[in-house]
Amino acid sequence: MMKFVLPPLREELALLPGPVLADGQPSHTLHDPVRNQFFQIDWPTFEVLRRWHLGDPLAIAREVSRETTLQLQAEDVEEIGVFFRDNQLLRPPFGKAADLAERLHKRRGSIAQRLLHNYLFFRIPLARPDAWLGRWAPRMDFFYSRQFLLMTLAALAWGVIEVYRQWDSFSATLVDTLSWSGLASYGVTLATVKVLHELGHAFTAKRLGCKVPAMGVAFLVLWPVAYTDTNDVWKLTERGQRLAVVGAGVLTELAVAAWATLAWAVLPEGTPKAMAFLVATTTWIASVAINTSPFMRFDGYFLLSDWLAMPNLHARAFALARWDLRERLFALDEPPPESMVRHRRTGLILFAYATWIYRLVVFLGIAALVYAFFIKAVGILLFAVEIGWFVLLPFYRELREWRRLWPVLRGRSRARRSAAIALVLLSLLGVPWPAHLSAGGSLRPAEQFVVYAPPHAMISALPVAEGQHVNAGTVLMKMSSPDIVSRLDSAVAKVERLRWQTSAAAFDNEQRAQWQASREQLSAAEAEVAAVQADAARYAPVAPFSGVLRDMAPDLRNGTWVATQEPLARLIADGDQIAVAYLDEDDVARIAVGDSAKFYADAPEGPVEPLEVTAIDKDASRALADPELSTLFGGSVVVREKNGQFYPERPVYRVTFKAMHASDTAALHTWRGKVVVSGRWEAPGWRYVRGAVAVLRREAGF
Q1: Fewer CB within 10 Å, N side or C side of the chain?
Q2: CA distance to 207, 237, 440, 537, 543, per residue, from 195 (Å)
């Protein structure tokens, strides 16, 4: 704490009136014109500043307590002095140049730290638009008028109605733009929309009397983001004016999106309509999904911060969340970082937890993209920087704070209980657990024969009825075809003619000379008769095994013509049912032949059958032999289709099961459902360790 006379404030600082804070107390804004930084100060700090000339913390505290309803101690004044000193708001004393240089060096950090900071975030100002904005801002009155607002709302309503009416065309256009050229067009459109977004901030700030010293591009983890320097809005005393500046960018994008949506709906096919589509879709997605998010420091965050009248919202919410975490884990009975009503504090804590989860997902995704888009050596380095800075460093800082609190923690019963729970949870990761592996599968009869209609067939007889049991060799149905009869009659007549020619060769010299050719023609004709008779056999399909005839087409009657390859009936063999499923390489290593399993049909009326593993393919399936189990048909195996074949996107192994107690319900159909296998016991943590080692081994080679 400071034990000396307070140094004087810097003379160039400006004290401006600020908005009323959430708790009703007045606030002021302290402007540092050298760095163009603003500091919002509360009522106690303002009263201390009014008496700063006294120089003595104790005298200032007594004066404030005597003249106002505030009750301050000398320590409170000293804390304000420390804040002013750390933020370089005090006049530097003479002869302390070395101390100032050391402080500057410490603030800048080492070369490695500066490189890291510049990689994570840096700005490039491209324009100084203040004078230009001053000339053009008065000409923008129409876009801030009530008439333009009503026109935009009408355009939005009309455009939404037209998109609803033409949704098929709209969605088809969206799919067509998902190409490399389409993505390039989206990039150009997004850049243009973001320029308009920043101009919305700039013009609104200028109309309210603020300076806009710079506009340019900021790079967040090498990702370009347009920015506008609107720090001058801290001079505004009305919260509504600040909200107007912060929300101007999003409102500009939404207005552009509304008019672009209407333009797409009413323009004829061509380049203007395509450009309107790009602007509309890009703007809606960019505004709603990115700019309005309060979890990153974009417009949504500043809108929420100004609406709640809580500057530095993230830092204050994070401090409350860390306090809440320590209280729940260790019951330290420490006061919260700042006093506020209970419901607001609870909301900020939940907001902090949601922000942490959101950022964890985003930063992991950014790290993966950085690794994927750079050469391998650089990608690994940048991936490590991303994970270390954004993911591991916050955990390290919190653990370091716990270590500082260790003398207090070890005496707390809540801390011991939390440690015991943590140890139990960690031990559960290392203790083997029974495995219940699930995968999509199908249950079917072990043998089945589907009767398909041959070409140009007409039903002539149905000797077997639906559900009737037949023996092997039974004719299931009879069909006729004028085409097959004509072909057979023609082939038989040709055989008879050639036989007569070969038999008459003994009595005719001319026929005797052609006897050898006639014999060859006769053999070909007899083969043709056999082929036609084989085709004719398809018109009277015979049961290849004993079973029950099921799924007979309900509209089959004598004299009915059927389409080629139309399924007419299915013969289900007497015997067991089997199930088939596909497991990935990690799961298939945990099962063996003889393991028990269970099949659960997707349909509510379907069977639930106990199973036993009978076969496991040693090699991964190159093509999916059971298309109904692919995601394209509602299954669980992710595949890609090419030339009628279905190829799994990741290695899967075909596993065959035997139904232990085949039921009549299971024998009726082929059922699709889920197969759950009782596999070998394994510690949950081991799977993650094995996966991490496999990834490291794969990525270690260059």
Answers
A1: C
A2: 18, 28, 50, 76, 75
